[in-house]
Amino acid sequence: MEALAELERVQTRILQRIAGLELSHLPQHFSHSLSLSSPTGNFKNADDSNSITEARLSAILHANDVRDFLFKRVPSDYYDSPFEARRDVLGAHSIDHLCKSIVLVNTQAMSTVTDCSERNNSKYYVVVVQYTARFNAETVKSFLYALNDGKIPKKKFNLRLAPEETSVKLTGYEHNGVTCIGMKTDIPVILDEAIVKLNPDFFWLGGGEIDLKMGIRTSEFINFVKPFIVNCSGI
Questions:
Q1: Does the global pTM surpass 0.70?
Q2: What angle do CA 172, 105, 153 make, to 5 degrees?
Q3: Where does the UniProt annotation place the signal sequence (predicted)?
C-alpha cells in the first residue's frame, strides 16, 4: 500500500509539472484566464496543493489535443444563487451554457451487465445536460434499445440517478464536482444534443471539485470524450 501511495504521489507531481510547462507555452491572456482560483485571477502555481485537480485535468486535456478550455473557482454560495448569477460568475454566454454531469445506473440491466466494459450496454452512464433542461430518461432508454439493434428487450433499460456513494466511487468526484474528464472509471458518456447546438459552442460543467468549474469548446470535448449525442431533454 505504501508503494502504491508513493507511486500516486509521483504521478501527481509529474502531472503538475506537465501542466505547468504547457501553461507556460500558452498565450499570456489565455494562461491567465485558465484559473480564477486566487483573488487576483491568476493561475495558481502548479506546486500549490489546491491546484492539483486543475493540473491533473489540464494535463489530461492537453495530452488529448484539447486546447480551448479554462477553469474558474466559484464562491461558496454559488449553488444558492440563481442561474443568471452563476452565468455572470463564470462569464458564460447564457444560462443555457451551464451544464452538469450526472451518473445514471441501469436498474434493470441483465445480471451479466455489472460494469462499464460494454459501451453500448453499460451498467452506468454519465449524462451531460443543461441546468435549464429537463432530463428525459425515456429518450435514453429508446436510444440504447436502438443502439443494440433491438436485441435486448426494451424493459432491460431503466436509467435512474445513481446513489451518491456509487457516483463518488465510480467517478472519484463529489456531488456538484462531477466531470467526465479524468474519472476513476471509464464510464460511457451521453451528451445532450441541445448542448451541441449551443452558440457559441463553449459550455461549462463541473471541474472535479465542488467550487471548481470547467469551460470547454464543445467540438474539442466531443473529439476527446467521444460521447453518444442524444436528444434527451426538454427546456
A1: yes
A2: 150
A3: none
HSE-CB for 37 with a 13 A CA cutoff? 22
CATH number for 160: 3.90.960.10
198 contacts 96 by C-beta, under 8 angstroms: yes
pLDDT single digits (tens) 53-67 = 999 999 999 999 999
Instruction: Examine the domain organization and report whether 171 and 99 are in the same domain.
Output: yes
Name residue 130's beta-bridge partners: 99
Containing domain of residue 51, as a range? 2-63
121 vs 47 pLDDT, higher one: 121
CA distance 7 to 208: 21
pLDDT at position 51:
77
Q: How far is CA 154 from CA 99, 106, 145, in A?
A: 28, 12, 6
| Short-list 18, 19, 51, 49, CA closest to 36 | 51
pLDDT computed for residue 234 by the predictor: 73
Q: How far apart are CA 200 and CA 141, in angstroms?
A: 29
In the predicted structure, residue 215 carries a pLDDT above the cut 50: yes
Q: Find out whether 110 and 156 touch, Cβ atoms under 8 Å.
A: yes
Sorting pLDDT into bands at 50, 70 and 90, what band is 11? low
211 domain-assigned = yes
Tell me the C-alpha to C-alpha distance, in Å, between residue 78 and each of 46, 95, 129, 183, 213. 25, 14, 19, 24, 11
- Residue 39: the pLDDT is 32
* Same domain membership, residue 20 and residue 112: no
